[in-house]
Backbone:
């Protein structure tokens, strides 16, 4: 996709987040081996992830497969419980489990619009159910269904309400899934890879719909994706995850124009580019680590072109490289003071690492 922007400059007025995840940590126990030799092992899926979702804002969570994006999304939606950390709705601790009241505020849209709609029911049925369960129709179900279909640009609504899922295109099905999420008038929409299963030609329409819902209805949207180009197009803020941890956060234009973390630089270098002649840079730099035994120190160190000794031993702290831009990388930290390096020393350090790598 060759994408310009559907995002806007960030508002200078501080806003209160609708939904926050603070220091979220989650691991899963899995069985390894067979029979008598089977052992339980721990997958460190998410560690210490802090995320805030503001009204009228799209925040993108970007990373390769297995980075922990869906786990963060499910933690925020209260589908699973964290081992540590907390979720706050309007600044107050969210209920332990996903109650009906919580679901009315925080809705999820999944990757596969084929699987998320029951093939034996018409579109109308899929929309009527949440309207009835949450008493959202104000006594006029047909008008409420038509309104939902209009909000996701499926017009004329009567025509689409009568359709079965298999009679719709992938993009239309995803719009129905989004309409179903909107039925309860949520304030937060968590969209996990909502366009990755759609034809490239119809992805843009669904991204524009999300941008429209952000702007018109002031929804706080978490857009989960492995595609940093679409995140740049849609999101106001991008958070980059690697191997279960956040490595960089910034306004999307800043992050993609001036990436501070080497992993973000590689992600950008690997983004689809029709003009590229050589294979993407990430392809030649190994694969993400197993989360059963993540690498010591910086988890990215086995793949990092700038790796230094300290990276292998110590976890880099997250530091502010500018007022709204943070990165967790030793290139930006003075190891003695644990404070951010100034621009000059950062550039010098990077140059000298570049030089060492060239000499090898
Ligand atoms: N229920 C589970 N049981 C065991 N392991 C799990 C479970 N859910 C996730 N994991 C593991 O946690 C890690 C993070 O998975 P997650 O689905 O959050 O990644 P992701 O970034 O969404 O990846 P993708 O882009 O492939 O969807 C992976 O190693 C995954 O195998
Ligand atoms: S901390 Fe070290 S290994 Fe990790 S990204 Fe920064 S330079 Fe690379
Ligand atoms: Mg996922």
Residues:
């Amino acid at each position: 996709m060759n994408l310009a922007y559907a995002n806007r400059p960030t508002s200078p007025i501080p806003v209160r987040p609708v939904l926050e995840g603070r220091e979220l940590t989650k691991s899963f126990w899995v069985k390894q081996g067979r029979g008598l030799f089977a052992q339980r092992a721990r997958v460190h899926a998410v560690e210490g992830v802090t995320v805030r979702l503001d009204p009228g804002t799209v925040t993108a969570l970007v990373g390769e497969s297995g980075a922990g994006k869906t786990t963060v999304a499910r933690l925020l939606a209260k589908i699973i419980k964290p081992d540590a950390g907390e979720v706050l709705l309007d600044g107050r601790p969210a209920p332990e489990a996903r109650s009906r009241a919580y679901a009315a505020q925080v809705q999820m849209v999944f990757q596969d619009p084929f699987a998320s709609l029951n093939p034996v029911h018409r579109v109308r049925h899929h929309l009527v159910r949440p309207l009835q369960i949450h008493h959202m129709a104000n006594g006029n179900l047909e008008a409420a269904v038509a309104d939902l279909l209009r909000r996701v640009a499926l017009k004329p609504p009567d025509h689409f309400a009568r359709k079965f899922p298999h009679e719709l295109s992938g993009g239309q099905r995803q719009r129905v899934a989004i309409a179903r999420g909107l039925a309860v008038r949520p304030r937060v929409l968590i969209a996990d890879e909502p366009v990755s299963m759609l034809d490239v030609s119809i992805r843009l329409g669904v991204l524009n719909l999300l941008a429209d819902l952000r702007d018109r209805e002031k929804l706080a949207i978490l857009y989960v994706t492995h595609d940093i180009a679409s995140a740049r197009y849609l999101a106001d803020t991008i958070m980059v995850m690697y191997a279960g941890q956040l490595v960089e956060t910034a306004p999307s234009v800043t992050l993609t124009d001036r990436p501070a973390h080497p992993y973000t630089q590689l992600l950008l270098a690997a983004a689809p580019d029709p003009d590229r002649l050589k294979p993407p840079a990430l392809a030649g730099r190994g694969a993400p680590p197993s989360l059963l035994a993540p690498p010591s120190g910086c988890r990215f160190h086995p793949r990092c072109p700038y790796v230094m000794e300290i990276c292998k031993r110590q976890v880099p702290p997250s530091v502010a490289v500018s007022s709204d831009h943070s990165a967790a990388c030793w290139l930006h930290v003075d190891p003695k003071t644990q404070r951010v390096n100034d621009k000059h020393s950062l550039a010098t350090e990077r140059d000298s690492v570049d030089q060492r790598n060239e000499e090898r």
User: Anything to note?
Assistant: The chain has a mean pLDDT of 89. The pocket of adenosine-5'-triphosphate (ligand 1) is lined by residues 28, 30, 43, 45, 63, 65-71, 226, 291 (CB under 6 Å). Residues 200-217 form the longest helix (18 residues).
